[in-house]
Write a structure and sequence with these properties.
7 helices
Length: 191
């Protein structure tokens, strides 16, 4: 029994396309329970536990920017519910199939998008080596460069084209042009 490790075919698909799935992880009941817990914790202001720090939270609230997306970031440090999701055994085996057994969860993040909201702008979430003008995170020799960082998108409710599904451009994980173009365009427009 191979457990929940990816098959060689799934690994090859990931290496070629930079994406794999959908893969089952949570039951609908588990996903709903986690979503409801996140909403409840946010309504309780995360009990004052924010890795962002009190000053950042106060500034976000003052500017009417405080939301679940900000409140839930890095909360695996404070709440077992988030830590358990980030370390879910099925998820851990799938990620270990790509990166090896020594995997570190460096961030959890909730992206709560209402039906009427705009989504996140196009970007590359592969590595920190996308652009030569930023500090680089380097992979150990045995790990291919595009696979130093893996994002796992876990839907906590049904998604489709009309309610904020994730859109991907297969193959861009090993092509930094998209991220470089967006970063330079943003810098030229802002600065």
């Amino acid at each position: 029994d191979q457990g929940d490790y990816l098959t060689q075919e799934q690994i090859a698909e990931y290496e070629q396309r930079g994406v794999i799935g959908p893969l089952p992880l949570l039951t609908p009941e588990e996903a709903t329970a986690l979503r409801d817990w996140v909403v409840s914790e946010h309504e309780a202001d995360w009990h004052g536990k924010s890795p962002l720090g009190a000053d950042a939270v106060a500034a976000l609230k003052h500017n009417d920017l405080w939301n679940i997306n900000h409140g839930a970031i890095w909360q695996e440090r404070n709440f077992d519910e988030m830590k358990d999701m980030a370390q879910h055994p099925v998820l851990a085996q799938r990620v270990a199939s790509l990166l090896g057994d020594e995997v570190v969860v460096w961030r959890t993040q909730i992206f709560f998008v209402d039906h009427h909201q705009q989504g996140t702008f196009w970007h590359s979430a592969t590595t920190f080596t996308e652009d030569g003008d930023l500090p680089a995170l380097t992979a150990p020799e045995e790990i291919p460069e595009p696979m130093i960082n893996v994002s796992c998108w876990i839907a906590l409710e049904d998604v489709d084209k009309d309610n904020a599904c994730l859109r991907l451009i297969p193959g861009t994980h090993s092509d930094v042009r998209l991220d470089t173009m967006i970063r330079r365009f943003s810098r030229d427009r802002v600065g």
